Every structure is written in C-alpha cells, then in structure tokens.
Amino acid sequence: RLPQHLYGGGGAGRGGSLYRMDRLAEREAAPEAGHRGAPAPAPLAELLQLGGPCALGDSVDVLWNPVLPEQVASLHRGTVRLWSLSHAAAASSASESGAAPSPREEGSFGCGRWDPHHAHALALACESDLLTLDTRSMKSAVAVADAHEQPVRGLDYNPNKPNTLLSSGDDYHVKVWDLRKPLTPVLSLLAHAHWVTSATYNRFHDQLLLSCGTDSQVKLWRAAAISSAPPSLDYEEADPSEVEADGIVRPYTDHEQSVFGAVWSAADAWIFASLSLDGKVVVNHVPPSEKYKILL
C-alpha cells in the first residue's frame, strides 16, 4: 500500500475511487498547518474508479488488503467485489477479479474487515450473520448464523492473535469469536444501553478493547484472559486483591450525542479518539493505573 494513495467510497452513484495525495513528503517536512510558511492543502488527484455507477446508498465500504496491497474489496449492499490494482508510469487501473453475493436472499452486507494474518480471508457481516470469505474461491470459509440478535455494525480482527474476531451489534453486545470453534463466542459483553456502533482492538496491547455506541458513551474494556498475553500469575499463591478481573476499565461520557466512531492512535498505544453525531471529536487516554498493570 503506497502512503500517498487512499480510497474513498460510498459517494452518490459511485462505488469507490482511488486518489493520490501529491506533495506528501513536502508537507511532512513543512511546519504544521496554520503556521506561517505551511503549504496550502493540495487537491486530491483521482486515479481511477472501481466499476461503473451504482445506486445511491448501495456502496457500503472500500477495504484495502493490509497483506496484499494491490488488492481491494468494495462492499455493496448485495455483493462484495474483489479488485486487482496495477500502477504504471502513466496511469493506474483496477480489474475485477471476483465477486460474491449476499448469503441472505433479502439481506445486505453491513461491514467487513480483512484478516491481518491471512492474505485471502475477509470477514463480513450480513444482517445478524458473520462469515469469512476465502477470496481465492470467493466462497464462505466460516459462517456463524445469528451471531448477534440484531444487525452487526462492526468487525475487527485481533492484530496479535490469529483466528480471533471482534464483533459489535445493534443488540447492545460486543462479542469475541474463535473462528476455529465459532459455535459460541469466547466472550460476550452487554456493552452499551443502545446500539454498539464500533468495537476495536488496541494494536499494541490486545487485552484492551474500545467500544462506542448510540448511548453517547465510549467504553474501555479489559479482556486479558483471551488475549495474546494472558496473565501468567500463579493464582494459587497470589493475593486475591492482585488478581484483576476482566471487564470494564472505564466509561467515558464526554459526548452528548450518539458516538459512531472510536479509534486507537497508530503511534501511541495509550491514546484514542472518538467522534459523535454532532461532529465533536474527543481525544482520551488509557488510565495510568491500567497502563502500568500491563507494562509492569
């Protein structure tokens, strides 16, 4: 994936476009925006569009494969399409290399996520169902019917532990799945008082989970027992007061309206941001006490 390339999707009548950010190196070396001498924002150059026009609201998302940077999936209500990219000196192009319909006759895809551990695995949510797609054959590899009682709104793979998928849904729950044994979740949390719009793993310390919802709250969770680094404490000799149970670390109530996005910092393991319906962005941090429990 080239740092100057980015995808946008879901525009009116369009399934997705590839853009190039010009003068990226120049801007990184320049003073911060707003300071005297900072360069003016450069317009994005559109390189290509994925497919032809589509119906308004049909495009759901564009997902760039983190393992194979020349592969992109475009997610639509009734189908998922796979694209192969090629970049030449004069132009870039995209060719469709596969497609798969929604597994439900009247259902639609709601979200998706590439598996960072397996180059050809794409997790998808269709209404309340979960499935993983093998993009070599464009057929389902794992299917979990009615994984949630209501539509699934978010998916995220554990970045450090293979075959582990996090899901969030309109049933107020956050669930963790072992895709090798998907009959029941390994963890199920009644996380919010309304729809859970997003749930994500901390990329550095996957025992930390972040969720947000339409109850206007952001919540930080501890799930050490099912993480890539479970506690190694000898419980027979340990002081019970030192054994910290998994569960909620802290709720954050800075928003007044529904929160639709919460993301971890890519550079700092202890910083995260959230975005609510009214456009308010809040930056928060993991409590120091929780940070030192992980580090010490």
Can you characterise this structure?
This protein has helices at 24-29, 288-295; strands spanning 5-8, 17-20, 45-49, 59-64, 71-76, 79-87, 92-101, 109-114, 121-126, 129-134, 139-144, 152-157, 164-169, 173-178, 187-190, 196-201, 208-213, 218-222, 247-252, 259-264, 271-276, 281-285. Helices cover 5% and strands 44% of the residues. It is globular, with a radius of gyration of 21 Å. The protein has 296 residues and is mainly beta. The mean pLDDT is 88. The strands form 6 sheets. Strands 4-5-6-7 form a 4-stranded antiparallel beta sheet, with no helix packed on it. A 4-stranded antiparallel beta sheet has the order 8-9-10-11, with no helix packed on it. A 4-stranded antiparallel beta sheet has the order 12-13-14-15, with no helix packed on it. The chain is built from 2 helices and 22 strands.
Shape: globular
From N to C, what is the helix and strand string? EEHEEEEEEEEEEEEEEEEEEEEH
Q: What is the CA-CA span between the terminal residues?
A: 35 Å
The class by helix and strand makeup works out as mainly beta
Helix content: under 10%
Average pLDDT figure = 88
Low-pLDDT runs of 5+ residues are none
Radius of gyration: 21 Å
Subunit organisation of the chains: single chain
Looking across the biggest beta sheet, what order are the strands in? Answer: 4-5-6-7
Q: How many helices in DSSP terms?
A: 2
Largest sheet: 4 strands, antiparallel
Number of strands: 22
Strand fraction band? 35-45%
Secondary structure elements and pairings:
Elements: E1 5-8, E2 17-20, H1 24-29, E3 45-49, E4 59-64, E5 71-76, E6 79-87, E7 92-101, E8 109-114, E9 121-126, E10 129-134, E11 139-144, E12 152-157, E13 164-169, E14 173-178, E15 187-190, E16 196-201, E17 208-213, E18 218-222, E19 247-252, E20 259-264, E21 271-276, E22 281-285, H2 288-295
Antiparallel strand pairs: 1-2, 2-3, 4-5, 5-6, 6-7, 8-9, 9-10, 10-11, 12-13, 13-14, 14-15, 16-17, 17-18, 18-19, 20-21, 21-22
